[in-house]
Structure formats: structure tokens, C-alpha cells
What we know:
It is an enzyme of class 2 (transferase). By secondary structure, the chain is an alpha/beta fold. It has helices spanning 15-30, 43-47, 64-69, 71-87, 99-111, 133-140, 149-157, 168-172, 179-186, 203-223, 236-249, 269-275, 286-293, 306-315, 323-328, 343-353, 356-375, 381-390; strands at 6-11, 35-40, 51-52, 92-96, 117-121, 143-146, 162-164, 194-198, 228-233, 257-261, 279-283, 298-302, 334-337. The chain has 2 domains: 6-167 and 379-390, Rossmann fold, CATH 3.40.50; 172-374, Glycogen Phosphorylase B (Rossmann fold), CATH 3.40.50.2000.
Amino acid sequence: MANRKLKIGIVVGEVSGDTLGVKLMRSFREQGIDAEFEGIGGPQMIAEGFNSYYPMETLSVMGIVEVLKDLKKLFAVRDGLINQWIQHPVDIFIGIDAPDFNLRLSKSIKEKNLPIKTVQYVSPSVWAWRQGRVHGIKQSIDLVLCLFPFEKVFYEQYEVPAAFVGHPLAKQLPLENPIQIAKQELGVDENQKHIALLPGSRKGEVERLLPMLLGAANILHTKYPDIQFLIPAINDARKQQIEQGVEQLAPQLKAKIHILENTDSESKIGRMVMNASDIIALASGTATLEAMLMHRPMVTFYKLHWLTYLIAKFLVKIPYYSLPNIIAGKKVIEELIQADATPENLAAEIEKLMNVETAQIQVMQHLTMHKQLISGNTEDPIQAILQCLNS
């Protein structure tokens, strides 16, 4: 195998996966490994030479009920990849996040006895809900690459091969992170107070969450007319969608709301907006970890389809939804979920964080967790993957 080019299949379903994927591709090359990459990738990976058979957005579906509506399309994509790899096998398949799709794809690879090793990069939250999935993971996954140390401990209990590789952002983002510099880099007035409103990167998320964010912005504007609001848009389609939402729901705020569109394949705009903001309001998800690692005060919220929420409430085994609270094992940031996720409640929680002492308490907890995530003994993901390939 050392004498030929490695063929590596990768599937990602969202921006954070695209970021992990492109880092993985670069790491292979930096370590002198001759490899080609194919599957489903995002713009960063494609710019790096990735051969994507389907758009990344094909997998951008969240929620149990929402996924059911798109099952036929998702099955067709899975079967398309399997057929491609039956005819032209890759050496190893790495599913990055998107566990509902990627674990099924890995299962199909094993069921068809394809000569392909399977890796799941970013563990599904089996420690939080649907713990029975770990048995399926044991049968279909050759290696799990874990971002957090407690995940490896969980898998070891079930004898699932796992490596704690750490979260790349925890290593990448500095422990000292002055907001004035971040405001300068984004080109906003460092003397102004900025609140980031993050409705997500998917069309469906923006449709569901933007109205609440704009409602909260309206309430805050009446009390604090000088506050500026920053909203990142991953691409032109999302920017137009957000602009239409502002026009319909908050036209009086057009002068106070700044929609910043991503301008390159690195998809950095969301991170830049969070970094330059004094307070962040965002949907619960991977971005909460990024905000934590930037040491910015935040409020998180989420609204799911009512049936998805009922099912999740029954299945979830832990008391928190957001990563900062899960990592801390206690409430560090406020979570507004479902019925509690209202413009009034969101505005009230943001207002609490406008108190410097309240915000600083949260920021210091973020810093403590950041230090914990970079102090553990981590393995190199490339070496872990190569060991799996050669085992």
C-alpha cells in the first residue's frame, strides 16, 4: 500500500465537518502521505482538490421528522456512494460527524463485505441519548476519533476502538483573545456594543430561528438604541434569505443589522462575527463550542419540530443540550429550548449578559474549560487512521 496512492472516502454534512475535513486532507499531505479524496465534501475541501459526488447541502437535514421527509433522497445518495465504491473501492471511509447518514453508510459497507476500513470522526452523542447505538457502532465502525476525553472512556466500556484526538479548534484558538483586535479584523467600530445573532447555516434553520432572533433584537433596540447586531451568512443564498427576513420582520432595524457574507472557501465569517461580538445568541450546536473557545458570553436556544422534540426529550439521558454545559457537567450558559425559546426570554437573557460582572463569570468558566481541552493527552488523528488501516 505504501507504493501506491491511498484512496480515502470522506463524507461531511455541514460547515464544521467541512472544516475538519480540509484539516484532515492537509494533515495527510503534510505528513507526506500520497492520497486522493472523494465522497461528499464542502467548499473548503473542494478547493483543496476533493472530488465531491454530491453537494454537502444534500445531507443538511436536522431533526427526526425533518429527516423522514428526505429519506428517499438520502437513501439514493447512500446507494450512489456504495455503488461507486463497489466499482472503485476506496481504502478507508471516514465519516465526519453527520452520524445518522455516515453510520448507515458504514453499516452498508460492512454488510456488502467491501474491503474498506470505516472510521467515524466526531462521535455521535451516544453517551447522551440512544446509548443502544453503541452496539451498532461496534459492528460497523473500525475506529472512532473522539473530540472529547470522556467519549473515549465511554467507548472503552463497550470495547469499541477509539482514539481521543482532541478538538482542533481548542488547539487553534488562543487562550488570550482580545475583542478589540477581533473587531478591527472584522472592520466594525470597536467602541460600539455588538450582539451576534446566529440562526444557523442551513435554509431550514434560518427559516425556523431567524424570526425569534429578530424579535429579540427588536426588544433590545427599544431599550438600547445604540446596539449593533451582526448576522453571518455562509453564502449568497443565506444572505438573501436573511435580508428578506429582516425586510419582512424588522425593517426598522435595517440600519442596525449588519449581514456579513462569507467571502472565501474557508467559511470563516461565522467565527469572525462571534469573535468580534460582545454577546452571542446562537442555536445550540457546534458553534456553542466555538463561542466558548473564543471566551465570549452567550445564550443558546433551539426550536425543533414538536414531534422531534417529544421524541428527543424521551430519549436524551443528560440534563443539557449545549456542548459547554455538557463538558462542564453543569449549567454554564443559559439554554432556551422549545417553549422557552421566545424573543422575550432571549432578549432578557442577553440583557443579563450586558452586566459586565455576569458576563465575566461566564467568560472565566469558558477559559477554564478551554485549558482543560488542550491539557489532555491526545493522539494524532492521521497516525490513528493509518494504524486502523494497517490493522
